[in-house]
Structure formats: structure tokens, C-alpha cells
Here is the input.
Amino acid sequence: MGREINPAKGGVADRILASLAAIGESSIRVVEELGEWMLFVVATFGWLFRRLPRRETIWPNLYQIGVRSVPVIALTGTFVGMVLAVQSYTQFHRVGMETLLGAVINMAVIRELGPVLAAIMLAGRVGSAMAAELGTMRVTEQIDALAAMGANPIHYLVVPRFIACLVMIPALTIVADFMGVLGGYFYSVYLLGIESHHYIQNSAQYIKAFDVFAGIAKTFFFGAAIALIACYQGFHCDPGAEGVGRAATAAFVVAFVVILMLDLALGIVIERIYLSIWPEGAQLIGV
Here is the structure.
């Protein structure tokens, strides 16, 4: 008689091979999509430096991305400052250092929370909207119609949105920073009873102009990432309403992760620049 085949053993081997094949296919798809996105980025920058789009295509995007986002950003910044005051006061009060609360709140808002939360809010509001809008244009073949008429879709649709994000997100971050500082001051002084002059004095002593510019500088990278990711998702949208929904969701999720990754990388670079300008700061952080 021939040798019998163990079904259980064959089943395990098949499952292992199937798992490895699935991992390989997923890895290939990720690499392919990353390559397509890089080509999309190169094409966008190529048109950006070759010829700027008409102002008529930029102004509506500036309004949609910037002006209409001010209430959401201002509200977010205000509550971030207040929440920091609530969470930090108890810890500082235990060690008798509540007068330093202003420096901690303002540093956290200006250097990290203001830029990052503003970018995340805009990724949810603006990024998803751009992906859905461009995805709908792809599904209804409007993008193909533009190409058929001789207009480059990236130059006409992507570059104006990229410029608007690059300009307005830093401006909106300033709004978030201002409202966060104001919210922290209001809660600390009027509700927690910290003396106003101590709050302002310590804030001015520990926060440098470098901190303000460093926080704003990061948002240029955040804005570029949001625009490029959202527009790419819209341009490569799957057919149908379900495809548009997936594109909008993917635009926010991917932008959210990329913003956090950029924040980490830029934070390391900015910290090194800071220590090269003020070497005495290395003693405070143990470097």
C-alpha cells in the first residue's frame, strides 16, 4: 500500500503557505502604492515649480481650508489649554510649583499640542473632504474629461489644494496656539486662582521665540502631507459610492499616522538645533 497522507499535517502546511502568501501580497501592494504615491508627489512638485495655477483656482481653496476651519481650530485650541491647566494644576500644587503652570501649558501648546492637534483636526475636516470631492470626480469621470480636454488634472486640481494647505495650515496653527494660551491663562488665573503676573512672568521666562517658530515650521510639513495624501486617495478612488467613502476614510487615517511620524522626526531635528543654539539646555534634559 502507498504511504498515507496526514490531512492534519497537510492542512497546517497549507495554512502556513497561505499566510505567507497573504503577507507577501500585502507587502507588494504596500510597496506598489508607496511607489505610485511618490510618483504622484513628484508630478505635483513638477507642476508647482513649472507653472503656478491661476488665482481663480486657489482662492476658493484658501477659503474652504482656512476661513471655514477657524471656528473648529479656535474651539479646539481653547479647550486644549484648559484641559492642560486642569490636569497639570494638581501635580504642580502638590510640590508648591503652581506658579510655573503657565510655562508648562504654553510650552506644550506652542511646541507640540497646538500644531499637532490643529493638523489632525484639519486632516479630518479638510483631508477627508478633499479625498471625497476628488474621488467623486474620479468616479463620475470628470478627471478623465479634464485630461481629454488637454488640461492636466494634477495641475488644475491638486496644485491649488496643495498651495492652500501649505499657506493656511500654519496660519490656523497660530490661531490654535493663541486660543490655547488664552484658554490656559483664563482657567489658571480666574478659576484656579494663580496670580496673573506670576503666570505671565514665568511663561515669558521659559518660552523663547525659537519655540514659536519651531512649532509653526512643523505645520508646513503637516500641511503638505495632508494635501498630498488626501489628493492621492481621491485620484486613486475605487468605483462607486463605497470607494469614495473608503478614500475619505483612508485619507484621514493615513494622514493621522503620517502627522505623528513627522512630529517625532521633526521634534528630534528641532531639539538638536535647539541644543546647538542654547547648549545650556542640554543640562536640563540630560543630554
Notes: Residues 9-50 form one domain. Residues 7-50 form the longest helix (44 residues). DSSP finds ten helices and no strands in the chain.
